[in-house]
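Encode chain A's predicted structure.
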Amino acid sequence: MTLRGQFLFWNGPLFAHENLSDLAKAFWFGIPFDLVAITWTLVPVVLWGWFIRGLTWIPFFLFQIPLWAISVIDIEMWNFWGRRMTFSSLEILKEGQGKATGIAADYGIWIFLSILVGILFGWFAVRIFKKEAKPPFKWNSKRIILEQIIILILLILGTRGGFQKKPLNLVNADHFKKAQMNQLTLNTNFTLLKSFKKTSLTREKHFAEKSEALKRVNGRLASQAYLPNLNFGQKQNIVILILESFSWEYTGLNLQSKKSYTPFLDTLMKKSLTFPRAFASGRRSIEGIAAILSGIPALMEEPFITSEFSTNEFVGVGHVLTRNGYDTSFYHGGGNGTMHFDAFTAKAGIQNYFGSHEYPNPEDNDGVWGIYDRPYLKYFSSELSKKKEPFFSTLFTLSSHQPYKIPKYEVFENFETPHPILKAVAYTDSSLEDFFKLAERQSWYQNTLFVLVGDHTGPQVMTDFEDQVSAYRIPLVFFHPQISNWPAEIDRNQLAQQIDIPASLYDFLRLKDSETVALSRSVFRPGQKNFTAFIPGTYLHTDGKTVLIERAQKKTFIDFENFNQIRPENPELEISLKAVKQVFSEGLWDNALYF
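Encoded structure for chain A:
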């Protein structure tokens, strides 16, 4: 709390226009984060006391003083990197090799304060803790055992940050729209703790000027969008249906398979704008959400939502549509707080989050993940009918998530399939059909654009694909009841991606000056595009003809259609991958991902 006060005092000009109530809330919301940081630093003190006793000031001194000093230094360094210090931020110390004199001159006052605070803190620690050694605990005393059990329980609660389902993480600090207010809520010790031993994103620098890198990524083309020439007469609603684990190979898009498990989706795709070569950004739901709702690709080991960069400012679809008069909401039948969806969607500008706690019929819960898809999609349809238009709403299905539970009374339970997920996919597809039958009878239906997209792929079970690229292929469908013929100029064979969805919505709604990630581009705009995926230690990068597989210093070029066929080296593909790395890494490190 004291350090937060110093943080506010020394960075006062940045908070000059905030009202007192918000500043008070930031201090109040920061208490759980403070307790986590304090509790973790007390753990070694307690353990020391259990086995050594006496001289307790030693572990206290060793842990508290350095962290206090770093927190003081971070008060100034926050202005340098735009967010609280994380463990990977300590890498900047390497930049100080050979530059110690210059750093000392620039940050002399903070170095002096750190030393002074360390001395004072150490003096108090030695005074407070008894210096004489004591024998270890005798655990035969019931009172001592009970006391230590209580201490242990309190330590566990403290390190978790309370009784909530998951321990506090950086994303839970997002109580305000302004990133700097959320930074005030956090404390440096907490951010260091939560980023400890997490693989950081390397800052890539391949082009002297950032503009040179930007010329080589998808967002470089500012060409005119090809859009339906329709005068709707009113703002159109937007509904995104995110389909759990829906692989391209389970659908009619997979021409190598004799059977599709999505007959309704196949029918819908025939009267929609469909992209057979569409890709998920990552392999996890937590990565898909960030891509679909904010255009952020999954090009690092840690998902953006739980990474040290989650406190960065970013532009979500909710931000753009809210300021354009939309009612915005997110629905997920899973338990509230699952994968931090509630916290992330709030930060993405979505006004209302609905989880299983808000669902009225708990008997529809599958006992594992949440509400079965069929009842939840029916509920979703009725919820949309209550909303004021125009609205933007997203639903995330869950029945096709392992263990693929579907109601026993459903006919799909008796299907013979190569893998259990296919029963669940067929069930969700049938549930979608029920949803659309209900929706088409509602007044809002005719003025709604539906986007159907997989969050990531599921198990590879339909065909013997040997390429890693197919591990990212998903359905991506744009359906509007009033549009039977989308402009022929739209390239259906383009490398469409989840991260293209925000820009595509802004184009469809004709919203100008909406910020997007430079690595994405609206599906309505023509031009060559690349797709990039990241597997720990490996990049996959393709232009739809050649696939570049980059592992450390090894590069392999493979044919996109026939993954077993080696292709000649493609220098242009290497250059564009370098551009992607630089734009992404600099965008996150500099808190400047959007343009």
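Residues 97 and 103 are 10 Å apart (CA to CA).
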